[in-house]
Amino acid sequence: MREQYLDPDYVPEVLPHREGEVAEVFELLKPLVEGRRATNVFLCGPAGIGKTAVAKFVMREFSEQAVQGIYINCWYHRTEVAVLTEALRQLSYPVPRKGRSVDELVGEFIQNISGERLVFVLDEVDALTDDGVLYVLSRTGLPVGVVMVSNDPYAMRKFDQRVKSSLSPVTVEFERYSVGELFDILEERARLAFQDYDPMAVKVAARLSYKHGSDVRYGLNLLLRAGRLAGKMGQRLEVQHVKGVEVQEDPKKERRQGELEGEHRLVVEALKTLGGRALSPELFARYRKIGGKGAERTFRKYVKELIELQLLDSEELLGRGKRRVLKLR
Questions:
Q1: Which CATH code is given to the segment(s) 179-249?
Q2: pLDDT digits (tens, 9 = 90+) for 213-268
Q3: Structural domain spans, the chain
Q4: Does domain 18-173 have CATH number 3.40.50.300?
Q5: Which of these, 308, 311, 310, 303, lies nearest to 286 by C-alpha position?
Q6: Which of 48, 51, 127, 248 could lock onto 43 through a cystine, CB 3.0 to 4.6 A?
Q7: Rounded to whole angstroms, how far apart are CA atoms 12 and 30?
């Protein structure tokens, strides 16, 4: 089994049933090829229905016409400084030393991208804690096209009116896939991943994906786990393998858990060593013991973000004083 073809982050050569969205986004950004400013785009719709895949697909297509692409997930890079620093890193420009002011960083960013043509993808844009970077990108006067992605169709409401006016994005709304469309998508991946398989197994995965909000990631996760199970048994992929590993967790949450870095990962690891359930002070003490560097206030911020990620649950205990139990989902 070639697992890379079942990875949700793999961008295939074709995107079945998203040809219309690809064409629309490409047309809006097409002026970049001629060195002109593009129309910015806002992609919205439920999780797992191809928004990020379309953004990355278009970014790759433009790279063949000397338009550079930058992809940034705002869940991990939430501030103006974090986004601009990561953008410079991806463009292989020197990253400014810490301690520089925001204005200095913005100036260096603009100076470095002068002469470039850029497709700038901001995934999970609603996770930004400030909209300064959106204002910067909309006012460069350079050939830069911004593609913003969010599950929330109202994500743009949180940003300042001046920012929204400068960006003036065209909204491209994604509809959920049908069962048949999900089968076509998963069948294309299965054909690449497996030497031999029962097409009925892919149909079952498509039906289960449809029940989970038409989430392609769910279906890919099913096929990956089922393929591993079939491999252990020395068999080709069959229906019973898919039914045997039906995923109970949200695959996007699983993917994020695998991508946790640094202090967030330490918080999760600390809770695991406590049996997956602990009072907040106990968890903080264990987090520090295994190498956590954050002070208590910073630790609470990490916990809040992990709860938002749906990796932790929080429960208030009745009784004297305010006590909170944290649990792994």
A1: 1.10.8.60
A2: 899 999 999 999 999 999 999 999 999 999 988 754 445 555 555 455 578 888 98
A3: 18-173, 179-249, 260-328
A4: yes
A5: 303
A6: 51
A7: 21
CATH code of domain 260-328: 1.10.10.10
pTM of the model: 0.74
- Give yes or no for a contact between 47 and 41, defined as CB atoms under 8 angstroms apart: no
Extended beta strands in the chain, E state: 41-44, 68-73, 118-123, 144-150, 170-173, 277-279, 312-317, 323-328
Are the C-beta atoms of residues 208 and 174 closer than 8 Å to each other? no
SS3 131: coil
170 forms bridges with which residues in the sheet?
Answer: 41
Rg of the chain over all Cα atoms, to the nearest angstrom? 22
Nearest 10 degrees: CA dihedral of 129, 133, 134, 139?
A: 160
Which structure tokens are listed for 261?
A: 């870095």
- Report the distance separating Cα 247 and Cα 9, nearest Å: 18
pLDDT 10s digits, 48-97: 899 999 999 999 999 999 999 999 999 888 899 999 999 999 988 877 66
Tell me the C-alpha distance between 214 and 244, whole Å. Answer: 20
Q: At what angle do helices 296-308 and 280-289 cross, to 10 degrees?
A: 110
Strand order in the sheet with 323-328: 277-279, 323-328, 312-317
Report residue 133 as tokens.
Answer: 């970077």
